[in-house]
Amino acid sequence: MSIRPWVVVEAPDGRGLRRVTVGGENAGSAWSLRELRRMLDRLGYPDVDVEDAASVCWRGGDSGTWPDRAWRRYATIVLMTVGLLASAVLNGVIGWPDASGALTFAQRITGALLVLSGLAQVAAAISVLDYWGRRQSRISGAIVLLGVLISLAIDSLLLLMWLEEREYTRYMLAFMPLWCWSVWAIFVLVREKSWRGVPQPKRFAAGVFASALLTALSLAYSTMYQPTVAPMRFSLKAEFGKAREDRGQPFLQVPLKLSVKNTGEVSVYVIIDDFTVYGRTAKYSEQGTSVEKEWKKGLDEDREDEAERHIDQIAFSSISSGRFYRPGTVLESGQEDTREHVFQIPMNVKYDLLHVDLQIVYMRKDRGRIDVKKFRKPHPSWKKKEGRSYCRRNCPEELVYFGAVRHNNNLVNVTRKPRHVLATWSPKVAPVYSISSYDFRGKGVDFAEESREVDRFGISTIESSSEVSVAELLRSTSSLRPS
Questions:
Q1: CB neighbours of 227 closer than 8 A, spacing ≥ 6?
Q2: For residue 41, what pLDDT is reported?
Q3: pLDDT for 223-235, tens place per residue?
Q4: The pLDDT value given to residue 3
Q5: What sections of the protein cross the membrane (predicted)?
Q6: Do the Cβ atoms of 345 and 279 come closer than 8 Å?
Q7: How many helices (H) and strands (E) does the chain have?
């Protein structure tokens, strides 16, 4: 029988784990005396006297030297695992809407990267059990470190975006605590130098940096560069046709042709549109007055671009009004639509000119998404039920359109309060639109916020107008009469 003990228990490592060899072969590691006894029992030595120096050799301490603080280790495992899984869920919730339904390829890539980062954090959560356990994998610590770095980067980005507006959202209850958790987790992992098991730490660091840079560039491209450089171009026409005399009534039937074409590269949502035909009356004078005087007078009458020497007392009366599209209609790039509209005026009309205005208010589809199903539904303000819900006070008779609108990037949506787009139409007044956090139940519209949101969502108005002489219309009808 050899005088050398056949069970050797090594000194505790930095975590309190003691390596065990039996008969010169590695048998594993133990955190406590109870765990050592279970190990020997599994190996077929249940009756080994651990206090017998002939059987067990203790190095770096005796049978009572077990510095492992199990409660601290278990608490670290729980906190690391819960934090990584919570971050993975948050990244998936934020990234999936863009990954599955974003308009542009760059936005889908951004969403996919967030989803993939969530999967990486799930792998890191699994590696936590090994890193704070037996450490059978050399890279488990590096995987955990990568997952925590991802969480710190994304939560820091969310926090910075939230600080821009400082609005309450339910996601604050997730990314703010997770940011604090990620700072603590980074401190723990740096203190333990969790990257030491990586065979080539420089390549690992380079891979982490490249991934972070790719994510940042993709986000910047999809949210700032691409929506800014894509040009917007439209072709609007409003033209009067040849009038026809009504066979049974002393009226003229005047055709009006309207056409709209999106010649740009970006699809748009139509928020509201309107076309209105006006008849102009004026008092004529052979001597007339100076153009400068008429121009100044026109400024007082909201006619900044009209001044004539031989006419005075210009007035416009609305004859016909309507809409080209339903609110929420998508006008795709390259799409062209036309409409023929016929209106009537009396033969002995006092108008000297007919004027038509066509205008369309649109929102760039690469800047945001409108809940079209709700936005298309009209709410008449004169109906008691609708008016009470969609008009605060002194509401005129009009159709109200109201719906939610989201930014094109879900990272922005989770750091902002919900936005709503509002549009009203009436044949009596020009269309009105608004986009803000206003929802008819809280305070009124914040005009500074509204101005910012109009710019962020790329909302603009395009207009076209045309005029025709009534004398020309009458002459065209007289030439058609039989002699």
A1: 364, 366, 367, 408, 458
A2: 84
A3: 555 555 567 889 9
A4: 46
A5: 74-97, 109-129, 141-162, 168-191, 203-224
A6: yes
A7: 13, 18
How would DSSP label each residue in 354-404?
EEEEEEEEEEETTTEEE-HHHHTS-EETTSHHHHHHH--SS--S-EEEEEE
**Contacts with 83 (C-beta within 8 Å, 6 or more apart), sequence order:** 148, 151, 178, 181, 182, 185
pLDDT for the residue 348: 85
Provide the pairing of β-strand 330-331 with 268-284.
Answer: antiparallel
- Give the span between the Cα atoms of 103 and 368, in whole angstroms: 9
For domain 233-360+467-483, the CATH class is mainly beta
pTM to 2 decimal places? 0.74
pLDDT of residue 481: 52
pLDDT reading at 201 higher than 90: no
* 5 vs 265, higher pLDDT: 265
Q: Where in the chain is the domain with CATH 2.60.40?
A: 233-360+467-483
What is the pLDDT of the chain when averaged over all its residues?
82
In this prediction, residues 446-460 reach a mean pLDDT of 83
Interior/surface letters 177-208, b for 16+ CB within 10 angstroms, e for the rest: ebbebbeebeeebeebebbebbeeeeebeeeb
Cα dihedral 7/12/17/21 (nearest 10): -20
Q: Please, how many CA atoms are within 13 Å of residue 98, restricted to the half-sphere of its CB?
A: 34
Distance, in Å, from the CA atom of 271 to the CA atom of 252, rounded to the nearest integer, reads 33
Please name the residue that has the structure tokens 């050797």.
Answer: 8
